Amino acid sequence: MTRTIQQLFDLKGKTALITGGSRGLGLQLAHALGEAGARVMLSARKADELEVAVADLQAAGIDARWIAADCSREDDIHRLASETLQRMGDIDILVNNAGAAWGAPAEDHPIPAWDKVMNLNIRGYFILSQVVGKKSMIPRKQGRIINVASIAGLGGNPPQMTTIAYNTSKGAVINFTRALAAEWGKYSINVNAICPGFFPSKMTAGTLEAWGVDELKKHAPLQRLGDDEDLKGLCLLYASDAGKHITGQWLAVDGGVSCVTGG
Questions:
Q1: Residue 79 burial by Cβ neighbours in a 10 Å radius (0-12, 13-18, 19+)
Q2: Is 124's pLDDT higher than 80?
Q3: pLDDT cut 90: percent of the chain above it
Q4: Helix axes 47-59, 24-35, angle to 10 degrees
Q5: Any idea where the domains of the chain sit in the sequence?
Q6: Helix (H) or strand (E) holding 148
Q7: Residue 245 has what pLDDT?
Q8: Is the torsion defined by CA of 204, 207, 212, 217 positive or negative?
Q9: Average pLDDT, the chain
Q10: pLDDT score recorded for residue 202
């Protein structure tokens, strides 16, 4: 029988692993999945921030736990995957969200900073996807991978915003999503990307201070910034059976900025 819309979006019995989940966009995505019924494992580098985030999720009635790990380190990535599988069983949904940014003119951009951004923003996504795929998703021929990219991956920035490593890494995430979806479709693994626009967060605090809220709003046709609800719907679509025929895609959640800039 054809399922109802409520049944298609239901995640009861599913387990989700979210990196960079202790605050900001990652915590919003964890709420979306948990509120739909999934059990949630959060990961980030700082244990104290993870404790606060898990308490917030648990207060909302979500089965949530945490593991501190640095997703720029290959050994930590393997430990994160192994511990999650040991404590929660198979991983049905992987959200690759951990990320870093660095601002510097291209001609003066420090190479160690370039490597830091690339190691976390794209290399870490690949390694964790590979490990979770081999250990949990491919053997069962099912799984959902959601990669958090950015509209910064769709092109360049205004000259005042010198984040060439970040833009490059997020462009790589978008094509990584397409390539992995094409390879792993035979295993019934869906791989999609979310491209947020400007959301107030710790990572974007410097830009917010430099540009101001009103100026940033002017760049969006909807004349607003993203908030604590705006990624939830797309995340749940990608993670649930409502999106079972969607793979290899990205969607900008940006108030329309990319339709103006041509992204």
A1: middle
A2: yes
A3: 86
A4: 30
A5: 5-253
A6: strand 143-148
A7: 98
A8: negative
A9: 94
A10: 72
CATH code reported for the domain at 5-253: 3.40.50.720
37 vs 158, residue with greater confidence: 37
130-159 residue pLDDT tens: 999 999 999 999 999 999 999 999 988 777
> Is residue 166 annotated as part of the catalytic site, yes or no?
yes
Q: Closest by alpha carbon to 231, among 197, 260, 258?
A: 197
Could you give the 3-state DSSP secondary structure of residue 30?
Answer: helix
Residue 51 corresponds to which amino acid? E
Please check whether residue 93 is in contact with residue 16, taking contact to mean a CB–CB distance below 8 angstroms.
yes
| Given the residues 125, 166, 187, 238, the one annotated as active site | 166
Give dist(CA 167, CA 142) in Å, integer: 31
Angle at 236 between CA 30 and CA 150, to 5 degrees: 75
Residues contacting 234, CB < 8 A, separation 6+ = 194, 251, 253
**Amino acid letter at 164?**
I
Return d(Cα 36, Cα 170) in angstroms, integer. 28
d(CA 121, CA 149): 9
Confidence (pTM): 0.95
* Residue 1 pLDDT greater than 80, yes or no: yes
Residue with tokens 């490597």: 115
Whole-angstrom distance, CA of residue 137 vs CA of residue 99 = 23
Rounded-to-integer distance, Cα 207 and Cα 110, Å: 20
